[in-house]
Amino acid sequence: MKPTNPVFTGIDTTVFETMSRLAKAHYAVNLGQGFPDVDGPEDIRKVAAEALIDGPNQYPPMLGLPELREAVAEANLRFYGLDVDPQTEVLVTSGATEALADCILSLISPGDEVVLIEPLYDCYLPLVRRAGGIPVRVRVTPPEWALDRDALADAFSDKTKAILLNNPMNPTAKVFSEDELQFIADLCVRHDAYAICDEVYEHLVFDGKVHRPLMTFEGMRERSVRIGSAGKTFSLTGWKVGYVTGPAHLMDPIAKAHQWVTFTTPPNLQKAVAYGLKKGNDYYDGLVQDLTAKRDRMARGLEGLGFSVLPCAATYFLTCGIDGLGLGETDVEACETLVKEAGVAAVPVSAFYGADAPTGYIRFCFCKQDAVIDEARARLSAFLTAERAESA
Q1: Beta bridge partners of 226
Q2: In angstroms, rounded to a whole number, what is the distance separating the alpha carbons of residues 151 and 141?
Q3: In the chain, what are the domain boundaries?
Q4: Radius of gyration of the chain (CA)
Q5: By three-state DSSP, how is residue 17 classified?
Q6: Predicted TM-score (pTM) of this structure
């Protein structure tokens, strides 16, 4: 038979799905996949439920309901001082992954080079390759996650069509500094490159840090698109509602790609997200406070067990060094040991790199109920205590 498309044929199942399956098979506490284990605000869910009953439930406008596009534009102005036209500069998508696909399919042509910073959210590479783009990878590595500016500058050339920037960054929990962002902006302007900015964790930033979109830097307003996620902002990941903001000349082809990928998104969910985006600062502050407490709770527990916990400035994730714990030679072996023998699922950080990945680090997700975090710690403690007693 004729071959299927090589980009997707034989590709590994996402590491999140793999670890979640193992967690179910071994009745493990799942700290691998990045989703909260409680639903988001009840008032937002009530708006969605009422809109579902009241209708209409037919196709909404392809670009998104006007009230949600207006709410996205208002949020851009409120949080970042960006003056956005909701009619021509906002698009609603069925999740941030669809938004990424739309942006990549519409802006990248075969042979274009796309700069990517490893470790990568796992959909980036196949989407760039399916569009015919050539990935040019630059990496940050634990424990510092420092940006190698010389390497990044070398990655840009006249062939560079875009950089795909994830900030705040999954899985590193890194928030790029103003200086780093300025350096990236300067490279984009110098090489006439677009910036596709995955900013789904924009409101999950801790310790007084503030997210700043690359779009707000000089020269970037007309060459950047930024992607947000209601799933992350409102702890409603199953809703799959995302949004893209960008200049009209880029949003036009992106909307055309969206037209042929999903066309539209459930109208009742759009109405509810529009309501949610207008919540007061107390909601956004409370979200950060809640996640900060969960981060610190998990970090204390893991440090007490001997894990080397790296700083976490944002997102849902803690990266931990595993040296000296006897969990295996690599992070993959360590995660298999933990899920099968300790009953706790984590994710190997090497899964987010290409070749020659660092193998001494694993990632835990902390956006869970306190009881779940405590249960995971108890299981890890029991397992590690038994292992140490056996080897003594």
Answers
A1: 197, 245
A2: 13
A3: 15-39+288-391, 42-281
A4: 21
A5: helix
A6: 0.96
Residue 146 tokens read as 């420092």
Q: Which CATH number applies to 42-281?
A: 3.40.640.10
Q: Which two tokens stand for residue 269?
A: 């969910």
- 3-class secondary structure, 328: coil
Strands 90-93 and 242-245: antiparallel
How many CA atoms within 13 Å lie on the side-chain side of 5? 8
- The torsion angle over the Cα atoms of residues 77, 68, 367 and 16, rounded to 10 degrees, is -120
Q: Tens digits of per-residue pLDDT, 321-332?
A: 999 999 999 999
What are the pLDDT digits (tens) for 82-117? 999 999 999 999 999 999 999 999 999 999 999 999
Residue type (1 letter), 115: V
Task: Report the top-level CATH class of 15-39+288-391.
Answer: alpha beta
Average pLDDT in the 135-155 region? 97
Each residue of 252-274: pLDDT tens digit? Answer: 999 999 999 999 999 999 999 99
- Quote the CA–CA distance of 134 and 112 in Å, as a whole number: 6
Q: Are 51 and 57 in contact (CB under 8 A)?
A: no
Q: Is 116 helix (H, G, I), strand (E, B) or coil?
A: strand
Q: Rounded CA gap, 227 and 230, in Å?
A: 10
Phi first, then psi, for residue 136 (nearest 5°) are: -120, 110
Residue 96 · residue 227 · CB < 8 Å: yes
CB within 8 A of 186, min separation 6: which ones? none
At 85, the amino acid letter reads D
By CB atoms closer than 10 A (0-12, 13-18, 19+), residue 114 is buried
